[in-house]
Specification:
Layout (H helix, E strand, L loop, with lengths): L3 E8 L3 H8 L7 E7 L8 H6 L2 E5 L6 H7 L5 E6 L9 H4 L4 E4 L4 H34 L3 E6 L4 E4 L1 H7 L3 H4 L4 H4 L4 H6 L4 H11 L3 E9 L2 E13 L5 E10 L1 H15 L4 E6 L4 E4 L1 H7 L12 H11 L3 E3 L4 E6 L2 E13 L5 E10 L1 H15 L9 H7 L3 E2 L4 E8 L1 H8 L1 H18 L4 E6 L2 E6 L5 H20 L8 E8 L5 E2 H17 L5 E3 L14 H4 L3 H19 L1
Parallel strand pairs: 1-2, 1-3, 3-4, 4-5, 21-23
Antiparallel strand pairs: 6-7, 6-10, 8-9, 9-10, 11-12, 11-16, 13-14, 14-15, 15-16, 17-22, 18-20, 18-21, 19-20
Helix pairs in contact: 1-5, 16-17, 17-18, 18-21
């Protein structure tokens, strides 16, 4: 209980009564102050207005009317009857009194009655304080609050209730539903109002219930979310109900606005609550994830819906919830998901908006741009810029590079035109990819190609594959008139140290390729350091022989280098 003070004025010379009051023990929360004054008229108007209980005797009956006027409304006036004058009291005076005490001769009985008086005063104070606390609480609440008895009459309402019905508390108390809400029974019966029926349901079930109710108010039609509970007496008998109504009208309007926005978004979207359960989703979301309607997924955890989508709808999750792929009519569709937390006015997370944007066209355009920037338009091979960007700055031991140059390519262009030359380049690109599909292959110049192999099993193997490529190119060129004079000179370099840079690797391949041309073209040459020396003497007849002798010689060299690498 709150701290409070009980003020008592004892306007009587009775010694037993004074002794009983002086013997009272003060309580920590409920204290009392007794003023002893033989004459009530001696109390000032201020003292009278502050007192809670007055004890007077028959000598003060003449000032009783004035005392009643100046005392506060809740003050109690008790007459101490020492002469047995109760029966002779005028009715007008009796109506001004709150109690009459015949004073017993036993002081213990007097003390007992004084203690009982204090207990009664304490209960009255507690009741008044609780009433005040209840009034303050319900009037502070913006929701509508009301208490009804079992007949449906309103016993107490708050200010919010009065504002909605357009009536004062005094006008509402003791009145029923039809009067308060200004509605006739026939109108209520013909409408969709359910207020009275929900009251009956609460009383019948005997538990708290929640309802959605539409009510016609002075502020227009309103939509309420109401909670109604039965009130029980000390014998567990229902004696009434209490209701609390939260005005959902503006929120319902806001929800409708959100629904309109959600449904008109140009991409799939869903709203999650604070527990990551699906609260809403638009039609584009349902269409993409192939759900019939939103009721299928409302209240479901996001993870469950994702699992269903991946399992049943042939979706593929790529990355950390960022990308989803599906196939429609044989074409891949790519969605990227973006998430934004929804917070309330206090920055508390109350949900999340998840948007799925179709980036299929964007991805395809990006891939086309990247392909265009990285590849040679004519052959489809990587271009020089991309080749160098992918080549390590320093290549590892056992890396290989083939430098391929078409022999007498200019004659084809000059004799048969550039179209024949372009066809020869495209054919060469197909052969390179066929024989070295694992290689990083690039057209780095007019009729020059390079192939990089990050790791080879042996030098001999690379040379053998290069020779097979060279033979295949010559064989194919020979079968077609415009290209009969074409062949290929191929330089092969395999690193045996770990200090060779990418530019040096390409330079060595170029050197080996020119050595093949110097020896008569149409052959494979493996890079040797002695190739760096100036060539003053013409090549020997054996080295100038096309294809086979060159092949045998390079294979022998390859075997020696492979043996050295394995040591």
């Amino acid at each position: 209980m709150f701290h409070c003070m009980l003020r008592i004025s004892l306007c009587s010379p009775e010694p037993m009564l004074e002794a009983a009051f002086r013997a009272l023990q003060a309580d920590a929360d409920f204290r009392h102050k007794v003023t002893f004054s033989a004459e009530a008229q001696s109390l000032s108007a201020t003292d009278r207005a502050g007192e809670d209980i007055f004890f007077i005797d028959s000598t003060h009956l003449s000032v009783l009317p004035d005392l009643k006027k100046t005392a506060k409304p809740a003050a109690r006036i008790v007459l101490i009857d020492t002469a047995g004058q109760e029966a002779a009291l005028q009715e007008s005076l009796v109506s001004l009194l709150d109690d009459i005490w015949p004073l017993p001769a036993n002081p213990d009985v007097v003390a007992l009655r004084v203690k009982g008086l204090l207990r009664d005063a304490l209960l009255r104070k507690e009741h008044a304080l609780l009433q005040h606390c209840l009034e303050t609480t319900i009037d502070t609440t913006p929701d509508l609050i009301w208490f009804k008895d079992i007949r449906g009459e309103h016993l107490k309402v708050n200010q919010a209730f009065c504002r909605f019905v357009g009536k004062s508390k005094e006008d509402v108390i003791g009145r029923g539903h039809y009067y308060i809400w200004d509605i006739e029974p026939d109108e209520y019966a013909q409408s969709e109002y359910v207020c009275l029926e929900t009251e009956e349901e609460v009383i019948a079930r005997g538990v708290t219930c929640t309802f959605d109710e539409s009510v016609k108010t002075k502020l227009g039609m309103r939509q309420f979310k109401t909670r109604k509970s039965p009130i029980f007496d000390e014998h567990d008998v229902i004696i009434g109900t209490v209701g609390i109504a939260y005005d959902m009208t503006d929120i319902t309007k806001s929800s409708a606005e959100v629904e309109i926005i959600l449904q008109n978004l140009p991409f799939a979207a869903m709203i999650l609550d604070e527990e990551n359960r699906i609260a809403n989703a638009n039609q584009k979301f349902l269409d993409f994830f192939r759900f019939e309607n939103v009721k299928e997924i409302l209240g479901s955890y996001r993870s469950k819906v994702r699992a269903i989508a991946i399992k049943d709808h042939h979706l593929k999750q790529v990355g950390d919830h960022l990308e989803i792929r599906s196939w429609k009519k044989g074409e891949e569709i790519i969605l990227e998901s973006y998430e934004k937390e929804i917070v309330d006015m206090f920055q508390n997370r109350i949900g999340k908006l998840v948007i799925y944007r179709d980036v299929t066209s964007e991805r395809n355009s990006k891939q086309m741009l990247e392909r265009s920037a990285n590849t040679d338009e004519l052959t489809g091979l990587y271009n020089r810029r991309y080749f160098y960007s992918q080549l390590p700055e320093t290549v590892a031991v056992g890396s290989a590079l083939l430098f391929v140059d078409l022999d007498d390519f200019k004659k084809v262009n000059d004799t048969f035109g550039h179209r024949a030359g372009d066809d020869a380049l495209r054919l060469t690109a197909r052969l390179l990819k066929k024989h070295f599909n694992e290689a990083l292959t690039s057209r780095i110049g007019g009729d020059e190609f390079v192939l990089y192999l990050a790791k080879v099993h042996s030098v001999e193997q690379v040379v053998n594959r290069a020779c097979r490529l060279q033979k295949a190119m010559k064989s194919l060129f020979t079968k077609n008139t415009p290209w009969q004079g074409l062949s290929a000179s191929i330089g092969v370099v395999v690193t045996d140290t770990d200090d060779v840079g990418r530019d040096e690797l390409v330079r060595r391949g170029d050197t080996a390729m020119y050595e093949a041309k110097r020896r008569g073209k149409n052959r494979v040459c493996q890079y040797q350091h002695k190739m760096e020396a100036p060539h003053d003497e013409p090549p020997s007849p054996l080295c100038a022989a096309p294809c086979a002798p060159c092949h045998q010689r390079e294979v022998c060299r390859a075997k020696k280098q492979t043996a050295q690498m394995r040591k």
